[in-house]
Amino acid sequence: MPYIEDDELRHTFRIACDDHLQQLEDGLLHLEEHPDDRDRLDRVLREIHSIKGDAGMLGIDTIARLAHDWEQHLVPIKQDNVPLTPQLCDRLYRELDRIRQLVNEAVTGRWSPVEPDTAVDRPNIGPQSPTQTAASAPAPAATSPKPSSDSSPNGNVQNDLDGNYRIDTIRVATHNLDALMTQAGELTVTKIRIAHRLSEIEEIVSLWEEWSRDTNASRFLWEEFRVNGRENGNGTRANVLEQMQSFQQLSRDRLERMGNLVNRLRNAIAEDTARLDTISDEIEDGVRTLRLLPLSTIFNLYPRLVRDLARSQNKNVQLSIWGGDTRADKRILEEMKDPLTHIIRNAIDHGIELPEERVRLGKPERATVTLRGYQTASTVAIEVSDDGRGLDLEKIKKTALKNGVCRPEDLETMTPNQIQSLIFMPGFSTRSFVTEVSGRGVGLDVVHANVERLKGSIQVESEPGKGCTIRLHLGTTLATAHVLLVEVNGQPYALPVEFVQTACTIDPSDIFAIEGRETVLFGDRPISVATLADLLELPETSAKREARSSALSCIILKVGDDWLGAIVDRLIDEQDAILKPQSKLLARVRNVSGATILGTGEVCIVLNPVDLVQSLHSTRRLSALTRDTTSVSVASEDIGVEPPEDRPRAVVLLVEDSITTRTQEKRILEAAGYEVVTAVDGLDGYNKLRAQPFDAVVSDIQMPNLDGLEMTERIRSHQQYSELPIVLVTSLGTDEDRRKGAEAGANAYITKSSFDREVLVETLRRLV
Known about the structure:
This protein is α/β, with parallel strands linked by helices and 768 residues long. The chain folds into 5 domains: 1-151, Up-down Bundle (Four Helix Bundle (Hemerythrin (Met), subunit A)); 174-290, Helix Hairpins (Orthogonal Bundle); 293-478, Histidine kinase-like ATPase, C-terminal domain (Heat Shock Protein 90, 2-Layer Sandwich); 480-632, CATH 2.40.50.180; 644-767, Rossmann fold (3-Layer(aba) Sandwich), CATH 3.40.50. The chain has a 6-stranded mixed beta sheet. A 5-stranded mixed beta sheet has the order 5-7-8-10-9. A 5-stranded mixed beta sheet has the order 19-11-12-21-20.
């Protein structure tokens, strides 16, 4: 297979073939349903003819030959000599996949496992009996092949070497580029205006310097007059007074000039700032618009999947697509491709009944899977619904208990929707769950993980015997978020505003218990409440204990059908925040979705409301709102650490140069009952260790000034620190790296790729 050397031709050929292949697949799906549509058949023939011509022009004979063979299968159908049978469609689909693989090889140079001279056996010209057709057709594949690339009207999409779905290019309307160019021009004009402001500032500085010189001269003249003026007579006195009056008049003039300059500068800067705000907002909206693609970009991948999977299962299923023109961020499409594939596959595999069973139940023989997309005020929603068996709540409960996903007392307090949502927990992704509960656990933890990364939520609605709907709500903006800032234990935390229903104050006397959980009435709705500190497993402070008798600040959150009242110390502000994703070290920290930097330069953790609701179900029944102060260490007991009340708090030196990682590790250790002192690098850590006693050291390795290994060796060089526990937490995970850590004198070595909060805490518990 020749590789296309010319960059421009290679790019053009890839985009053109992606379009043609998608049109061929869509056309073939349409012809299966409407075999008499001659216009569509002609369009399909034109598409395959275009691929043949383009490949022949570029000297890619293998693709040209396969395209010609594919074309010749449709000629007898156009001449009414043979019918378009399902078996023939199976063959044509397989040939499309072969052409797609060869196109990918021609534009990437990566070998594809396709035999170049393999061609589909052409059907005999003339009528065939059903028996002959069935006998000559191979059995349908159990799963549909995974294409290496697909196309959309707005972008070029493909799977990378790791099999991840990604969108390489996006087609942009020229008017969008024109708008961005106009805004860039406005930005240039404003930049020039701001440069002029600098000259005005320099004018003010010059005036100030001149004024300062004259003021000093006036002060010197006055001192001269005070010392010698009386001896020089009245003439000298009059002369000095005249000069002083002149200086005063000059000062008044300069003061007026400076006032005018400052006012003019203030007004100009205010105007320029407003222009910058407008332009930056427009550019941000423009760039965000460029990244928006219609949901049809991925929706168009599923008709073929549904068709092949239904045939392999001997089921009759149609896919109904709505809202494909709804636009969403490019990353949403990339992240949702695999989850939607899992949901649709499970719906057909285990949710949809066989045709004879559906007829016996009084349902249409043909089942329907509906894929729908639409926009809400703050999210993009994607629904997958089917009219199959639905979910069996009792079987879900049994499997949840069997797999240890939750406890019997937790199930007692859950609503039906909450029980149905358990199918997305990793504990349900087992083969036994597939056979016992309609198979909907296969891969659905992938759905939960991807939706969580997109700051979204999942809702499940199911009625036994009538079907199931899975609804995904995804954030429209992924790099920024509008957040509500709250304070807990003196630290700021951010909550995404789209989950916040309201903020209110509640009186402690209004809190009552329902099934062992603190509850308040919000309107006529009972809502479980808990302190945010408890949900985050933070230690209780004396100030918080004293505040229980006064009105409490409460944030009402709604996540899907779940409600939660989170008690905080106080509300701070509401603002837009730029989200920083979690590092690999923090990828599994519950309740946290990322971090942001506040205007003060302080790191602020952005909380995950979905996790907070789950944390509510996993915390103890009676929280800090009602229990006495002798049992405040829920977090410490849950992770196997002795309560701080039973022993003096151990002091840990935390050495980490990353501010985000340092902040989160500090909170993890404090939640486990340790007192933590932080250092920004190895040298800082070593100096702090020499200044005061510590019970343990937790350190990174790769740091400036003094790395973790050198710091460990320097600590061990002192006899007094020979028994001091040292734990290294690092991204260096080879056996050689571990050996170096041991030789340096570390007691434990934890790699960040497998980092887990319990691992760190349990390691310290054994060493301290």
